[in-house]
Structure formats: C-alpha cells, structure tokens
Amino acid sequence: MTTSINIIQPDDWHVHFREDEMLKVVTKYSARVNRRCIAMPNTSTPITSSNQAINYKKLIESNSQSLNFEALIPCYLTDSLNIDDFTYALQNKIFVGGKLYPSNATTNSQYGVNDIKKIYNIFEILEKENSVLLIHGELNRDDIDIFDREKYFIDEELYQIRNTFKNLKIVLEHVSSDYGVDFVNSNQNIAGTITPHHMLLTKKDVFNDKINPHNYCMPIVKNEEDLISLRKYACSGNKNFFLGTDSAPHQISDKEQSKEIKPGIFSAPCSIELYAQIFEEENSLDKLEKFSSINGPNFYNFSINSDKISLIKKEWIVEDFTVYNDIKIKNFYAGKKISWKIQN
Ligand code: NCD
Ligand code: ZN
Description:
Blueprint: E1 4-8, E2 11-15, H1 20-31, E3 36-39, H2 50-62, E4 70-72, E5 75-76, H3 83-91, E6 97-100, H4 120-128, E7 132-135, H5 149-164, E8 169-172, H6 178-185, E9 190-194, H7 224-234, E10 241-243, H8 252-256, H9 271-281, H10 288-300, E11 308-317, E12 321-324, E13 327-330, E14 337-343
Parallel strand pairs: 2-3, 3-4, 5-6, 6-7, 7-8, 8-9, 9-10
Antiparallel strand pairs: 1-11, 11-14, 12-13
The structure holds N-carbamoyl-L-aspartate and zinc ion (ZN).
C-alpha cells in the first residue's frame, strides 16, 4: 500500500479569494498548497481593468502568508471593456486571460455577457495574443433546465466560438457533465478544469428530502454517470484536464438564512487531500501529478514548478467551519474523514 507520495507543487487554475475580511481569512488555505492560483475576477466590483488587476494581485499575495505564492488574474469580460487597456494588460501579463461569464449564470455574473457575439472582437485579441479564454460554460435561460445548462452552452455557443477561433485556447471551467468532458476530450485547443466536489457529489446530495445549501454550486452537481466520467478523465493523465478547485466561500448566512442561496462550495482547507483520495480510489495515484501540477502549466504556457510537496497516508477529520471575527464559512466535507494529509 502506498503510504506517501511526492509530487511537483500544484497550481489551482480556478479559485475565489473574494475581498475584505473574507479574503484575509481564505487565501492562506490555497497558498498552503499551491504555488500559483487563478483568482477569479467576480468580486463585488468585477475586475475589468489593468489597475484593478494589479491591486487585486497585490492584495491577495500580501495576505497569502507565503513568500513565493502568485495570484494570476483574468479579466472579467464585458461588452464595454476598454480594449486598449485590455490588450496592454494581456501583453504585459497583467491579465492571465479573459473570463467569460454568460449573464446570470452564477455569483456576480449580472455584469456578464448577454449576447456573446458582441465580444467576438475580444476573442480575436485573445487568440492573437496566444492568451486563454476561460469560460463559465452555462446558459441560463427560462426554457433551460438547470441540469442542462452546460450542454446548451456547448451546443449553442461553444461550437461556434471554437469554429470561429480555431487557434484560441479555451478552458471550459469546472466541467460538470459527461457531455462536457467528452466535448473537451475531442478538441485539441480546449481544456477542462475539474473540481473535487463534482467528483464526489451527485444531485441527491443537494436535493433530497431536505435541500442541502452547502452542496449547492454552479454548475450544479449531476448524475452518477457524470461523476464517473469526470473521474475517468481527471484520472487518465489526459493533458487537457487539470486541477481547478472552484473553492468558493460564502458566509454561512448567505447559504442557510437567505431566500436566494448563494452557489459555491468552500473546499480549500482539504482540496488537495480530496483529490489524492479520489485518485487513490481510481487506482491512479500515479496520474495525480499530471493533473495537479503538469497539465495546467503546459496548457497555459507557464513553467512547471520546481518545488515538491508530500502527501502522507493519515486519517483526519475536516473541521466543520472556518471562523474568524465576523466570518463563518461551512467547510466542504465538514466532519468527514479523509485518508491523506499534506505535510507542511
Ligand atoms: C462561484 C462563486 O460563488 O463565485 N460559485 C459557484 O457555485 N461555483 C462562481 C462560479 O465559479 O460559478
Ligand atoms: Zn468559480
């Protein structure tokens, strides 16, 4: 039985650090594991300019409690961006790419894009700069079932984006369905990030006799077949799949006492350990490093990290909450046993 593994230090290609007090509380959990994280730009005022990106990066790094931690910031795409500033920021690596939120698909996506054709000029710039388009791949429309939003986005938008911008690198973020992973797998320039929770939960964990708001996230977790496909691709070593936790903290009051439950799962305190557990269950621990530390930088055209981390076989129980002053967040996997632990 394997009792310890050493892997190249991971990167997390999709995480939410929020702002203010919340940012101060959550950032260290991702920085304890990862060398680099893509910090999602869906803050209360979205990050749409180079100045905001510079300040947000500094704020995160100075709260990371780590000396060599790096936050990478994508631009929150809108149809009213300052194109010169955007291009300048891509060329100077201030933006790591552009993030498309179709409007009203998830938390703070009300500033997102209604008519995606209107930002095809931005995709053209990303393609020319050999940068990356990050996509929240869901269409939220009255006639679309919540479980089918990813499929509709692929059919009605993504095929066309791919066919129009043949050299554009695209990340379909937090892929959640069988349909989604198959689509990624059949496209050279399209990669997918996979979260731990989409490989652990199905819709029964959200909607049962009682609704569990802590397992409610976007894209919504789906069926057993979807979970099996996600595990298969993540654990395959396939170069187009890599780590993105989508760790997305919300105050407990926004999950439990609110009429509108905020979508998002906070997994940063245990995400690398959960990935290790999943890869072990799939008899694929030897593929973990590709998923966590190699495929991502290769796709984004970054160097591979030089440090290593160790994970050891050791049972521990995830704390119920992350609490500090006025902040109280329910942790993913609260109260449950995990069989791997990072060694710090
Ligand atoms: C994320 C958040 O809360 O910012 N929520 C989520 O359910 N995943 C946004 C996102 O990535 O969709
Ligand atoms: Zn997210």
